Amino acid sequence: MEELIAKATQGVDPDAPGAFFHIFFNLMNMIPWTALFWWNLVFVAVGALLGWWRGRLLAGIVWAAALGPIGWIIVLLAPKSAKPPPLPR
């Protein structure tokens, strides 16, 4: 934990008026945003596939985007839609 605090406060004067934002941006720069973006796309794609299979495409996309793999479980536990999805031609 001390290593994380040292990285976050590197180059920051704690008495400066903008110290909070400087520390916050240092913490945000440590997050692997590219990996999180691609994982989120995978979660949404699987959620869309499961939603299409269950007849609830939009629900699958929304739940997967909001909750990731937990959204998949919600889509799978929800009742199937009355009309089946169209077959590919």
UniProtKB/TrEMBL annotation:
Keywords: Membrane, Transmembrane, Transmembrane helix
Segments crossing the lipid bilayer: 30-50, 57-78
Protein name: DUF2628 domain-containing protein
Gene source species: Dyella caseinilytica
Lineage: Bacteria, Pseudomonadati, Pseudomonadota, Gammaproteobacteria, Lysobacterales
